Structures are given as structure tokens and as C-alpha cells.
Amino acid sequence: MVILDHIQKIFHQDTPNENQALNNLSLKIEDGDFITVIGSNGAGKSTMLNAMAGVFPINKGKIVLDGKDITNLAEHKRAAFIGRVFQDPMLGTSPSMTIEENLSMAYARPRNMSLHWGLDFYRRKIFKDYLKDIPLGLENRLSTKVKLLSGGQRQSLTLIMATMKKPKLLLLDEHTAALDPKTAILVNNLTQKIVYKNKITTIMVTHNLEHAIKMGNRLIMMHKGNIVMDIKGEEKSTMTIPRLLNKFEQLQGEKFVDDRVMLA
Amino acid sequence: MLQNLFLKSLEQGLAFGIMALGVYITFKILKFSDLTVDGSFPLGAAVAASLIVSGHSPFFATLVALFAGASAGFITGFLNTKAGISDLLSGILTMTSLYSINLRIMGRPNTPLLNQPTVYAIIDDFSKKVWPLFPSKHVYLLFFIIFALFIKVFLDAFLKTQMGFALRATGDNPQMIRSQGVNTDLAKIVGLVISNGLVALSGALVAQYQGFADVGMGVGTIVAGLASVIIGESLLGGRTVFVSTLGVLFGSFLYRFSISLVLSFRLAQASDLKLFTAIVVIIALTAPRFRQSLKLPTKGCESYGNS
Questions:
Q1: Cβ distance B204 to B45 under 8 Å?
Q2: Of A34, A29, A28, whose CA–CA distance to A214 is shortest?
């Protein structure tokens, strides 16, 4: 269980550019939750994910994971139990290293500064089995450098790397936004397959309202650094896009504005 | 004469090649522009020479030199990661302070090692016992070939371990490797420690090879190292770690060989060498761009020194 307790994040504090990205945000994430996150421009969706991952310190509040306060834990230490996939397919993998070398770093987590050989027969076999799960034919290209892969292939690889050692929390920050629609579907299917099979607690930010409604068991909508809507259970499974937008307008008294939002 | 020139360059190329392997770790793997090298190379020489002159075993002296270089690397890494000083400046700071430290270690600007028991003298004696007919003048060469290849294989093996992967990823995509749970600060420090350890080791061997340690012998080390790395990569390419490190040693040899050629044909005088080296590096760095604009095939030589 993850608890965000009244967290606040202010960028450029005490300057004219001061920006309150997270405003007393509280959220309780149950084990096995698959939460989709939508929100208008600058709502703080990515900031919330980055705060959980420890990319920057937060100004106020507490982050608790399974009863352990991780508010001040360094980013690389949180990585032991938090898996991440980024929007930019370039960010999740090491481009000039091979597929198997990248997988090896994820496999060794969190003891990946040891002097153990990075690759051996046994590990290669495991990696092949993992790659067989995705219909991209990567299992026969283990020694290909990742920079030669397409965006979709990289995101799939990053997803496998993020979930290889089952994380307590998986953070997906618009991980299909940079992909073409067909590849996005493939990566989304892979996401659902991995998440449900391993019962990984997941938070997925998306701009695609349809994905947000169809995927996961819970949907939250963010606005101006806070959560304005939290839909679960039956309400979530019967939700439609027009009703969602309507509800937002009722709650906030303004229209849902997102340059990149995809309604279908 | 040319054969002699060739063999001498091979000796030197391999001796300096160990230094170039150190430069390869920082510049190519960590993408860290480390100028400590100009200080840690003479540091290795100074430490080894002083210890040998004061009667210690040359092997012990060389080993201590290696650790001295490693600690210089640690200081640069600490300045960069913990004190937040940029990579260039933290290297320059360590390099500058090492100049004074080297003078302190030797107590004077240079230490001659003539008639002192160096590692080569000991190996020479040993080889005479094992194989009396082996020509003495090739002992250096044999030693350098074995030793430099040993270091190369050791480095290759290290870069294939989990820690080696972490170092390579730190230079390639720090964001990614942090999200995989690696402390990139630690990875940088480890890389700098190993790199400068190798550079100082090379300095210690070169001092014993040329028969003296001099406080000014480090000037331009980084440029020579970089030249070796670049020449190696543009000739052999960098598909795998094995090929890259081999390329570094080969590049170091070619670099020394071309210098010897220029000098022996009296195309330049010794004092012009640093200028030539700098020009060679500039050409090597800009060649890919020219090749690109001429639409000629390039061999994987990306940008250097501007990370």
C-alpha cells in the first residue's frame, strides 16, 4: 500500500516563476490497484509520479510505502521497489548497450553494482523467455544494440526491465504517448498482460481518455496540483468519455483543457 | 632503422597505452572529461621514482603509484559528485594541486633513476636465468606486450561485470541506470578511481623506462591519451568492448610511431610535438563532420570532449 500524505511541491520557490505543482495532494493506493491518471495541462500528473520516484525532494508531506516512510530516500534506492517507464522511449534504456546487457542491469536489481558477470548462459535463457512474451521477435536479437530498435520495441523492453524484478509500484508516465497508434495498442496490451499476471500495483498517466477508461480498476483526474475525481469499481467500469468530461465541468466549473488529449 | 623505430614505438605505445586505457574509461565510457590525468601521470612517476630511490622494491613502488593515482581519481570524483563542481573544473583543480604535491613527493623537479633497480632490471635478471639466450633489448618489449594485454583483458572482464555495465550505462543514460537502482555518483567515482589508477601505473612504468621522473612530464598526457582513443576507434571501430580496448592500444602505438617518424626524419623538433599532437586530435575530432559533409561513410566516431 502506498500513501501520499498531503504532499506539496513548489518549483522555483521564491522567484517570479514560482509554480505550485502539487498542492496538498493525498492519495491512498491499495495493493493491486491499477490506477489511470488523466488531467488538464499542468495538473501535476508527471510531478506526482516523479515525487513518488524520488526525482526531486518534496516541500511538504510524506510518502509511505508498505508502512515505510520513503519521503527522503534517494532515487536510486527507491528503484529497488519502484519500476518506471518514461514517455520518451530514449530514456528507459541504454542505447549503446545491447538488449541482453540492458536486461541484465534490470535483472540484477538492486544488486547491480556487484562484480558478478553481467551475462551467462543461464541469464540469456531467462531473457529469451521474457522476450518471447512480446510479439516483436526480439528474442533472436539479444546482442543487438538498443539504439537500433524502434520506439515501440524500446518501450516494450523498458516495460520488461521495469517489471522483471516485481516492483511494489510501477509508474508509467504516458509511456505510449510517443508511439504510433498501432504500436501504442501493442504496448498497452503488453502492459495489461504483465500488470495483471504479476498483480503489480500500477499508476499510469495517459492523455488517451479511452485508455484511461478501459484500462485499470480506478481512474483519477488531476487539476491544478490536486486530485479532483477518483472513480472506482462499477462507476469506473460504466464510465464513458462524455460523462467523464461532463463530470469534470460540473466539479470545476470550467472546461477540461488538454492540448494533447485524445478523446478516442 | 625503421625496424628499430617500429619496435621502440611499440614499447612506448604499450607503456603509454595503459594510460590511454584509463582515458578511455573516463572519456568514452563515463563521458566524463577528466583532466586529472595530466597530474596523475607524473604523480605515478614521482611516487615510484621516490620510493625506488629510497630503496624500496620497484614492484612495491609501482603498486603504491597505482594507489596514489586511484586516490587522485577519487578526489576528482568527490569534487564532481559531492561538491557539485563541473567535471572539467574538478579535474583541473586536482591536476593543479598535484603539481605541488608531485614536487613535494620528489623534493625537487626531477628524480633520475639511472643505476637504480627498476622493474625492468629485475625482469631482465630473471629472464637471463630462465632463458640465457633471450636478447636483453627485447625484454622491455616482451614485458610491455604481456603487461598491457593483461591490463586490457582485465579491463574487458571488468566491463562485462554487473558493475562494468553500470559504469557504461552511467555514461550512456544516467536517468535510466538511476531508475534501475544504481547510484550514478558512486559509479562515476569508481570509474575515475580505476582510470587514474591506470594512468599513474603507466606513469610509474614510463618513468622507469625512460630513467627519470620529471614534474613536467604530465603536460599533454590527456591529449595524447585522447589521440590514442580516437585513432583506435576510427581505425578499428567500437562495436564491442574487446575491439575498443584493442583499438586504444593500437592507437597509442600508431601515435608514438608517427611521432617517432616525424622526429627521425627531422620534420620537426621535439619541442613542436605538443602542437602536432593537438593538431592531430583536432583533425581526428573534426574528421567525422567533414566526412559527413562529403557524404563519405563514417565509422562510428561520435563527438568527444563536449559532454
A1: yes
A2: A34
The answer to the question of residue B15 being in a domain is yes
Question: How many domains is chain B built from?
Answer: 1
d(CA B126, CA B155): 27
In this complex, is the C-beta atom of A77 within 8 Å of any C-beta atom belonging to chain B? yes
Residue B171 clears pLDDT 50, i.e. is over it: yes
Q: Which of A74, A79, A115 is the closest to B162 by Cβ?
A: A115
Cβ–Cβ of A94/B168 closer than 8 Å? yes
Classify residue B246: in a domain, yes or no: yes
Q: Is residue B181 part of a domain?
A: yes
- Taking a contact as any Cβ pair under 8 Å apart, which residues of chain A between 81 and 120 contact chain B? 83-84, 86, 90-97, 101, 104-106, 108-119
Here the CATH number for the domain that contains residue B157 is: 1.10.3470
Give chain A positions within 8 Å (CB) of B186: 113
Query: Contacts of residue B172 in chain A, CB cutoff 8 Å?
Result: 94-97
Does the predicted TM-score (pTM) go above 0.90? no
Q: What is the pLDDT of residues A151-195, one digit of tens each?
A: 889 999 999 999 988 999 999 999 998 888 888 988 999 999 999
pLDDT in tens, A46-60: 999 999 999 999 999
* Whole-complex ipTM: 0.87
Residues in contact with B157: Cβ distance below 8 Å, sequence separation at least 6, in sequence order: none
Evaluate whether residue B138 is within a structural domain. yes
CB-nearest partner of A113 from B158, B175, B182: B182
Q: b vs e for A13-49, b when ≥16 Cβ sit within 10 Å of the residue's Cβ?
A: eeeeeeebbbeebebebeeebbbbbbbbebbbbbbbb
Q: Which domain holds residue B55?
A: 2-293
Chain B environment of A49 (Cβ under 8 Å): none
Q: Give the pLDDT confidence score for residue A260 in this predicted structure.
A: 66
Residue B307 vs residue B188, higher pLDDT: B188
Where does residue A4 rank: exposed (0-12), middle (13-18), buried (19+ CB within 10 A)? Answer: buried
User: Which of B31, B176, B239 best tests the A interface by mutation, with the highest count of A CBs <10 A?
Assistant: B176
- Chain A with chain B: Cβ pairs closer than 8 A: 93
Indicate the residue of A96, A110, A118 with minimum beta-carbon distance to B181: A110
